[in-house]
User: Fold these one by one.
Assistant:
Number 1:
Amino acid sequence: MNMLFDALVAPLESRSDAVLIRPDNSEVTGEQLFALSGQIANVLHDAGVKPGHRVAMQCEKSVEALALYLACLRVGSLFLPLNTAYMPAEMDYFVGDAEPTVVVSSIKAADQMAPICANHNATLFTLGENSDGTLMDAARAAATDCPVAERGPDDLAVILYTSGTTGRSKGAMLSHKNLLSNAESLSEAWRFTSDDRLLHALPIFHAHGLFVAVNVSLNVGASMIFLPKFDIDVVMEKIGNATTMMGVPTFYTRMLADARCTPENLGHMRLFVSGSAPLLAETHREFEAKTGQRILERYGMTETTMNSSNPYDGERRAGTVGFPLPNIELRVVDPETGDELPKGEIGNLEVRGPNVFQGYWRMPEKTAEDFRDDGFFITGDIAKFDQDGYITIIGRSKDLVISGGYNVYPKEVESEIDDLDGVNESAVIGVPHPDFGEAVVAVVVPKSGVAMEADQIISPLQQRLAKFKCPKTVFFVDALPRNTMGKVQKNELRKTYATTFQA
Ligand code: MLC
Ligand code: AMP
């Protein structure tokens, strides 16, 4: 058996209908996607990829990039997708840490990736947006038939990096069972069927676009309108042919700001799902007022995929993330004692279930720190259950900013800022932003007698860090507010700069 291949990939072989619809409306049938993934699997095989090896990908979203994921499942290797915004210094860390056998990069990044791959003994292939690059050259010459590796429920399928509070990114290891159990639960909870056509505008290098959107669609034999990114004009043009859409809250605020956000254009949709960041109750209500559609909000994270969801039938309550999914236990505990708290009380949210990951890649101590003895994983989110069992995410105990659905760990950005000439120290915070929900802001203390401009911080950071992690603005101060223990009071800073991006 190969758990995920059998459930998600094998059924494609007999599908002559469209599974993917490209932006130019050309269709990719199941048979074609299956054959393409077989060809890519042969390329990986010939490059020495064995079950358990890692295959990293940093390239633009495309049908071929998706086929690479399916090929990895077939050869039993671990798929390791990476955000296209990552800079070479970040890529060097990921490749060094995960030690992939193969790296597939975009054509434009190949010159920067070559020395990184040489340094870490990885074979480099390229994949462009137009079915081009060395991966496709080799795939076209390869056979479509390729053996399927044996993979059981506990074998790993994917490593997804998530940043950490210490500033070092951690690779979350997800097994076949983790991913399939979640895809099956969500398909059922959200009533997905082969009649569905999902408007797919999310990136496929994160849990939302890959494990929720793609895995759920493949699991039920649905089709996807596969767009390279969220572009409001393209989304509004294509949505008439879709039945469902999944997005981060920024998708919905951008749609709300558009004149085409009407019942005529959106009323036919069966389901809109939101997640990855808090959807403001106000956005939920406005969307319903404008379109008649009640967005279904759910809650998850890279380490656990999806944990809870508002009901499909029944009240989708604005500002809440609904109920635990079947077979998943969620509890709210006292941060000091670890004791479970009664409904209505606010505490740390912990989760246990078949969805919870296998630990952080080569970080056993970090893994142990984040799990309780009884197997519950400490999410780092602060939440409460209301009397009807709905969960509300109140905040986070982890120092994290979520900007447009991307996570930014302040520690990583602060370390880069503190290394700059003229900087004494810094604090990075998230403040409300009308488009991204939260935006990254840096508060910097220059060395005594040094005068600095924002660009002296932002420009060098942009050479080292993905753009979404870079501060949108910088404030200079003489000293950071600290409590009696000497800890920086980020809450004070968040209050001080709360209206930075408000009209
Ligand atoms: C782009 N930029 C961002 C940004 N995205 N800055 C902060 N936060 C972001 N999320 C930068 C760009 O580099 C650009 O910089 C400027 O901001 C404006 O870009 P844009 O053209 O407006 O952005 P766009 O390309 O439209 O992207 C915005 C977005 C995208 C929201 C569509 O970020 C996106 O697709 N986010 C989805 C993230 C996601 O999938 N998260 C799921 C994680 S999984 P400049 O300087 O060049 O102008 C997870 C688990 C779960 O969390 O529960 O799902
Ligand atoms: P990531 O590490 O990218 O998977 O991000 C996971 C984090 O996103 C969670 O721990 C939450 O803090 C946040 N998150 C995801 N979905 C929601 C939601 N619906 N509401 C509030 N926060 C969310």
Number 2:
Amino acid sequence: MHIGFIGLGNMGAPMARNLLGARHRLSVFDLSQAAVKGLVEAGANAVHSVTDIAHSDVELIITMLPAASHVRQVYLGDSGLLSSVAPSVRLIDSSTIDPMSAREVAAIASKQGNPMLDAPVSGGTGGAEAGTLTFMVGGDTADYDAALSVLQSMGKNIVHCGPAGNGQVAKVANNMLLAISMIGVSEAMSLGVSLGMDAKVLAGIINTSSGRCWSSDTYNPYPGVIEGAPASRNYTGGFGTDLMLKDLGLATEAAKQQKQPVILGALAQQLYQTFSSQGHGTMDFSAIIKMYSGEDQ
Ligand code: NAD
């Protein structure tokens, strides 16, 4: 299939490479020339603007952009995709954005005959490179079915979450819970260690008891508890604090619009905001344990 791909950053570039690996023909665009060059070297065709992607004979366009403002600009801007794309070209936005924006763009697209899915991902850059991402997909069932094989070239767990916007709903709800559970594990580990427990023994108890969760048994924030976790390499790599802060902002904003209380989610957002403002935005999000245990833990 001839696919257009816009947004070749940390996630988009490896996703696009996996599409090439699955023998799709790819036309790519990014504001960064360096990002485009990398994909051209891998076999993609470079185009010079969003409009050029829309004017090429693609059957599907995938976008992987930083935030809702970029998605709005690329789809709804004066020279945006929807102003020039041919009817029936399918659209997939894999950026993580708020569900309301996803629904608004999808409604405008489908009204003019371009079926659109929101398909945010989890799995990070490692999952993007390995082609093992989880895709949380919102949109019509027929459009989901039509896109499934392409998504399977980039991910291994593809879940249809319901109508447009529901992929983003699943993503923000999961990541809000992840932030809350990471803070909870940080608090419990710090309390136990401060009271004299060995961190590994405490984690072992938690992980065979009712406190067990992914943040404790796979990604424990206490250094040295889990070999290979970011906590054991000074919180480098992994999922950055600022990305988690972005997702918490999406969750709390969506909750506000829905008048749905997210008491712990709002607290988590404030804790991550404080941590980021202290200069830790690029550290893995499990470094939030430093809010409890101090810098030199
Ligand atoms: P990134 O900043 O590395 O890449 C975004 C790319 O979009 C950049 O190359 C940028 O030049 C390009 N871009 C921005 N505006 C553009 C425009 N108008 N036209 C063309 N290109 C444009 O971001 P990323 O880490 O790849 O993340 C992309 C999305 O995936 C975000 O929404 C993020 O929240 C989400 N996400 C990221 C991760 C992760 O671990 N990085 C994990 C899951 C989800």
